[in-house]
Sequence to fold (394 residues):
Amino acid sequence: MLFALFCAEASAQTAQGFQDWIRSFWPTARAQGITAQTYNAAFAGAQFDSSVIKRATNQPEFVKPIWSYMDGAVSDLRIKNGQEMRRKYASLLAKLEQSYGVDRHVLLAIWGMETAYGSIFSNKALIKPTIQSLAMLAYADPQRGEFGRTQLIAALKILQNGDITPSGMVGSWAGAMGHTQFIPTTFLSKAVDFDGDGHRDIWNSIPDALASSANLLKEAGWESGKTWGYEVTLPGNFAFELADGNVTKTLADWQALGAKRVHGRSFPRPEDRAQLIMPAGYRGPAFLILKNFSVIKRYNNATSYALAIGHLADRIRGGGGFAHEWPRSDRMLTRSEREEVQTILNRLGYDTGGVDGRLGSKSRAAIRHWQKKSGLVPDGFASGDLLEALRKRG
Ligand code: CA
Fold:
């Protein structure tokens, strides 16, 4: 029943239409140097898969608060399993540090976040044939069609190179592949054959998978021997509008403004340049983030992701939790409430970069300006309290 409803909504996308699309895409692939043999083998088992489109078009009304995301990402089990992998792959990790200069704990954290150290491959419901998923996106998703076509060509090239067989090329519904969840274009430019068997195999070779992640981070500018950032404490009278992630100062300058590293520690290199972020507003933890934080974001361009990787790496190394608690009692806004925040701000003359329910840097800057003008702490964080205040005073 659900399936039938979905098909009706998806305006005449059918199994037959999908097969027709596969045939129609052949000249495009051939023009990119793909042989008929590669193409036919790649699509031999490809079937219409409505779940891909369902996932692609799902826009949740509720956004998970960052503390829920962090709880799941940096769980006790994931820390423990990461420590077990550190023992199991100690000699490989030492070689990778030597070759790429990337901290082994960060590599373990990425592996743990992306595929739970490879354990997701036993969950057949999550694992999909990459060619089929990308072809479904190219065929049926108006938003990701271009992405699907580009990645599909790259995936066909990987098959033609012989790095993996069509049945072995598996990953997420969105086309991220193998232990480290590379999309095909990233694979073509960054994957490496570290075990020396002539194939770049991020699906079955842990050395190839972890080396490919290390290579990506190294090429993105990883600074060897340095961390991702530091949790800090800020004084009550701090200029919170500086904590927008865009203001860059040296750690020494941040310190002069009142930022202190937690647990009475000092910064090992006060000359390092950093930005300040407060992902849950002024009532939550604050972090000074360094160059390597932005390098991690090349893997996945989300602040919460980079924070989870950095923190999971620290925890696998043996470090403790954050010194400050998240403001867990804050109510998160629904999508329509986030749109309301933007609408009110627009009415007050602020530019929020549109009314789309996504509170990006423009929206957060607008919130900060309004908070400052209204005598509130200008942290740019959109909680239930902020919406109430906007409704009353806006
Ligand atoms: Ca290999």
In short: Residues 193, 195, 197, 199, 201, 205, 208 surround calcium ion (CB under 6 Å). The two ends are 45 Å apart (CA to CA). The chain has 18 helices and seven strands. Residues 1-10 have pLDDT under 50 and may be disordered.
